[in-house]
## 1
Amino acid sequence: MSKACPLVGRMTVDVHYASMKAAFEAGAEALRVALEKTGEVTNGDVLTDTRAVVPDDLWVFDPRPRKEGPGAKKPSPGKWVDDPELANKPFDAERCNCRKWNAGHGAQCNRFAEDDGLCTLHKNQYDKIIALGGRDLPHGRFNEERPTHELSKPEGEGAEHKWSDMKAEKAAKKESEKAEKAAKKDSEKAEKDKARELKKEKREAEKAEKKKKKAEEKAEKKAKKAAEKAAKKAEELELAKKEAEVAEKAVEEVAVVEEVKAVLDETTKKVEEMEETNGEELALDLGEETEEMPEEKFGIFEHDGESLKWNKETNEILDPDDEELLGRVAQVDGEWKFNKVERDSDSDSDSDSDSDSDSDSDEE
Ligand SMILES: [Zn+2]
């Protein structure tokens, strides 16, 4: 067989690997066919599906030395290492479309697709699952919708897949629900507080109203009482007034009686006196009465253009300045006549005085 490559295209790592794999499978298949022919293998034996026996690391068939020293074993492409970043890689149609768990992040299988878009490993797994009544690989296909439950079990029997982002989502949801609950609680509390405040205000208003009403009632009662008291007082006053009037009337009556009695007494006394006394005594009494009368003692007597002092009791005419006796006056034919005083001679003043008193009494 010629060593010159009859093919076109670049010889990449993938092409190189795929060719090794194909050669392995072809060898395994040839062996199976040969053994079947001899009757040494039957259906159900390991070699029924030669693809299942392809080793993970086909690089062992490459004669070149390993990079890390002679014989150093490098992880094969089939060797899986969980990495959250793998979940974000775009779908690669060259590779197995099985979705791996990848610690809850999910990722496409890194083996090359062989049959039905699956690597030999997952194709084998798939066939077994179907045989046992399952529907698909447990986590579905990377180019299909992510399942919520295990697809490897019959419908309704698969356990739930707790994908990591769902966990985060769930946690976020839980957090948000918690926050919502707290907000609701706060709002309810605020509402409750408000209601309580309103109730308190209402109660206080009612209290104030009651107090006001009571005060008003009290004031009304007080006013009524005062009015009653005033009315009673007025009544009493009226009664007192009436009594006073009665008393006054009685007093007046008494006074009248007493007055009458006094007058009567006086009259009786006078009558008795009159009976007892004669005319002279009566005259003397009257004269004495005249003397007692507060008549002006001095007057003015005009004589020769001079104003002289006139003692009306004695009818003596005096100098108004030094009260020197200048003369006497006597009534002659209804007129007062001046008589100059004669030194060292007695005048009959008594008789004059008597006549004067007589005229006075007559006038009364
Ligand atoms: Zn696979």
## 2
Amino acid sequence: MARRALAWYSSAVAENGIKESATLSSWPSSAVAVSGVGRSYATNSHDVFNVHRDEAHNNNDTAFDFTPDNYKRVEEILSRYPDNWKQSAVIPVLDLAQQQNDGWLSLNAMRKVAEVLGMAEIRVFEVATFYTMFNRSKMGKYHVMVCGTTPCMLQGAKGIYGALKEHLGVDYGQTTSDGMFTLGEMECMGACVNAPMIAIADYTHGVEGFSYTYYEDLTPQDAKQIIDDIKAGKKPKAGSQHRSKAEPAGAVANGGWVPSQGTQTLVGPPPGPYCRNLDTEAEQQ
Ligand code: FES
């Protein structure tokens, strides 16, 4: 079904002379293979991670319950909301379940959240499916997300994606064979001033040690080095890889860091040319 839809789409593209988008042409085969239920094709890694497939590790019999410590955390989260609005806690409680469950939400993890909050299961499934930070498929220990929105794209996100794809040997929506890294794509993560960037969710230390770290001002080489550092058990530098924060010290261009060549931020009156003085012109008429 999915392959037929893809074949139809490809021929439509060819007939209409439409250039295939980078996302479409770079689909991993698994993205196509898993999308046969209810949709014709996956458009990004979120679609791959958020379509349920009954598998040995994720089915009606896969057990999930919060740990005693995490039940205490659930209680603390619920205390932030009125008693009759427990369902407002669905996002933080799902997040807690995901962190406990190594970065993804099994069917019964979502059902447990529904039970704890007194919600219809389908409502919880809907929330978990809609938000891209929730994963409904098993993930690697590290979820590496490449920002693919316009500012990052203009600053070289495709180069970052290409470098990571080659370095990890997996495409968007796939996990390395050792179960360490899942490569994904994410929309703008609000660090555009330091584009291009990636975020890495670390699920290796449970709820207590969970981290979600941004790495910014990346060159392809930086991106590969971050992966190598994680593999070596080191803690890569978070934030910008080339400046302190977001001061005008340079930018990534053509896959490399280019230091700024002079003032790029106004620290005095702009040098002109200026707009016409409309008040003076009006008086002269
Ligand atoms: S576009 Fe990448 S962080 Fe905004």
